[in-house]
Amino acid sequence: MKNKLKIHKTPAETVLYCIVFAVFCVFAFSYVYMLFWCVYSGMRSADEVAANPFGFSAIRLGNYIDVFREMNANGASFMTLLGNSLYFSLLGAGLNILVTSMFAYVVAKYKFFGSRFIYMLVIVVITLPIFGSGSAMYRLLYKLKFLNSRLMILTSLGGFSMNFLYMHAFYSSMSWSYAEAAEIDGANDWQIYFRVMFPQSVTMAGSLFVLLWMTEWNSYGSALIYLPKMPTLAVGIYQFRTQMMYDSKMNILYAACAISLLPPLILFVSCNNALMSNVSLGGIKE
Amino acid sequence: MNNATIGIKRHTGKRKAMRTLFILSFIIIPIVNFLVFYVYVNFSSFVMAFQKPEGGKLVFAGFENFEWIFKKIREGSSEETDNLRIAFVNTFKTFGIQMVLLPIGLFISYFIYKKIWGYKVFRVLFYIPSLVSSVVVCFFYTELMSSSGFMPKLLQSLYRLDYTPSPLVDSSFANKMVFLNLIWLGFPGNLIIWGGTFSRIPDSIIESAKLDGVGWIREMFQIILPLVWPTLVLVLTTSFAGLFGASGNVFLLTGGGYHGTQTVANWMYLRVQQSTNPERSPNLYRVSAMGLMLTAVSCVIALFIRKFLTSRIEETQY
To answer: Among partner residues A189, A218, A234, which is closest to B22 by beta-carbon distance?
Structure first.
């Protein structure tokens, strides 16, 4: 058992920790209140929410069922929004992590013409700030007829991202003896990767997948430009609000918001330890 | 042995071919994706900076797009969302706030790493701004700023006004409220990056420093900071590289740059979002021209910052 050294804080440190704790509490409370307000407002009647958004009134859980019937954004029902979100976030993040993992593995473990160049190129792409390419991307997707299309998922298949560096560092530090043993047993390169190496990287790849999925799930910026007629949940909620100028269904809106924030919240609470310890950004040597 | 190249000479011709096929099968998708959605897109963006649509066709525009941008920077614009002078000022202010928030985020992760009371709860709660969609967060924030929220009354008493302001549509307050939103949401910093980085610092280093009577200030600045310096350099470099992307939630809070809240990133976003046909939207080409200029400037800044920071502290290895 590992013995931890117990050192008491000095009085000055105790005061400092008290002040920091108080500040932490204020911010933490504001974030929790935001969640509570969103969930609670989704349970109130539309009139009461409109009259006093921060007040208290009787709750009716039926709003959370009404969302599925009453919410409509740009012609898309709540179930369609949910389906679009799941499609682009789950499949997009899954494909991206799989492609990135395979790409990083080959670059880290196989010396071939251009492997070093690819690694340097990824670093350049990550650090090189490029602005204003949104217009060219829009024009390309317009020409390819990818706008408002499920084919947009193909843009997720890139491997030139920070996740590449995480996976590359992981595979570089992984022993090759497993692969050698599998090779002696007659496994080919694909079998070595999918049956021996990839299963060992599942924790790392899983953490990156969860983080990417949460980002994609909540993302509205690019979806609002490229998928306005195939809205995801985040875009649908935004559109529902903007088209609600004369028909106030704020309670339905907040119920939809509450539903949208539940999946990432549950996932993060259940695996935050793994996420925090599995992902670190270069620098510190072990 | 940790390298597949060892023993490769023993492979038969068929085995070599299979390995080449294997490597190709793993790199082909990301490479093609990169060529299409990065190389082609950025090359196309470069060309677009010197084009304009005319009568449904694209024609060479010389430096016309750049001139339009410089005019809007120099003279401003009567159309509020096109006032690039204000947009640049706000971008620099937003970036300044982000730079102040960066060390604050570092300190927050430090105190969580030092296991402040309730650190496990704070670690989860401080991640809420990243878990919740900006759209939802901004609804809540907008309600706080509405006549039913507490902010208008607070501002009225703070500024001793004889009217109750509407903070997000009042030019005197709109920008401040966008910045306040940025501070509120950006306070926890990047918990994932810093949490992961701190967790890899060996306990023995911190414990031996404690035995030597090192206080928290020396521990933070003379032990931990040098250890995490490479990560900090990377974070600072990418932050400076993204200077012109600093925007906050302008689009969601003020409807896209109204009431003196426009930023450069939001201006570019709006212009693309409002385009319907690339052959008829001149703004798309102005966005490319703006992007080209900003990219050139940012590259120089990022290189300079990286060179400066890496020369300050020698990288620590352990």
So the answer is: A189
Taking each helix axis from N to C end, the angle separating B282-312 and B264-273, rounded to the nearest 10 degrees, works out to 150
Ordered by where they begin, the domains of chain B are 86-128+191-312 (1.10.3720.10)
Nearest to A94, CA basis, from A195, A216, A272: A216
Query: Is the CA virtual torsion B153, B157, B159, B160 positive or negative?
Result: positive
CA–CA separation, B242 and B84 (whole Å): 18
Q: What is the pLDDT confidence band of residue B7, given thresholds at 50, 70 and 90?
A: low
The set of residues, in sequence order, having a beta carbon less than 8 Å from that of A273 and lying 6+ positions away, is: none
pTM score above 0.90: no
List all residues 6 or more positions away from A193 whose beta carbon is below 8 Å from its beta carbon: A102, A105, B26
- Give A221's contacts in chain B (Cβ within 8 Å): 251, 269
Contacts of B158 (CB under 8 A, 6+ apart): none
- Kindly report the nearest CA distance between residue A158 and chain B, in angstroms: 5
Which residues in chain A have Cβ-Cβ distances shorter than 8 Å to B291?
130-135
Q: Which residues of A touch B48 (CB under 8 A)?
A: 135-136, 139
Residues B81-100 pLDDT 10s: 788 999 999 999 999 999 99
pLDDT tens by residue, A73-87: 888 999 999 999 999
ipTM confidence score: 0.88
